[in-house]
Amino acid sequence: MAGRIEARLAELGITLPTPAAPVANYVPFTSLAGGKLVVVSGQVPMREGVVAYTGKLGNTVSVEAGQQAAQLCLINVLAQLRVAASGDLDRVTRVARLGGFIACQPEFTQHAMVMNGASDLAVAVFGEAGRHARSTIGVPSLPMDAAVEVEGMFELD
């Protein structure tokens, strides 16, 4: 039977994908503090093996598309987190931190608005436990020309 978080994802119309394999020499997540803390590596807006949002904010990518990209990145973070939580997202007691990297033109300043795509989804999925600390920075480029990348830190029971 699906847990509370899986049911909430279904209500939101979200199906978590099979987690993507790392594209370089790193692991998709690490567990610390005896398994109570999980750090998920940065995830790009991959859908069915293809980066769904490419380019730069302030140039070829709109803020709205950037928000959708950030949301898709978080969906991919959650797919990795589910593996880290032994298949049970109900074990997540807090979204501790999200980090966002926004590929953008130097004059772009709406990084926070883009990252809200991920942050708003974290709260929609986990409720108050989804409220988190956050950093969002603009970068000149990301792997595979992704428009956004999101990483996360989570507390488990």
TrEMBL record:
Residues 6-149 form the Endoribonuclease L-PSP/chorismate mutase-like domain. It comes from the Bacteria. CDD domains: YjgF_YER057c_UK114_like_1. PANTHER family: ENDORIBONUCLEASE L-PSP_CHORISMATE MUTASE-LIKE DOMAIN-CONTAINING PROTEIN, ENDORIBONUCLEASE-RELATED. This is RidA family protein. The lineage of its organism: Bacteria, Pseudomonadati, Pseudomonadota, Alphaproteobacteria, Acetobacterales.
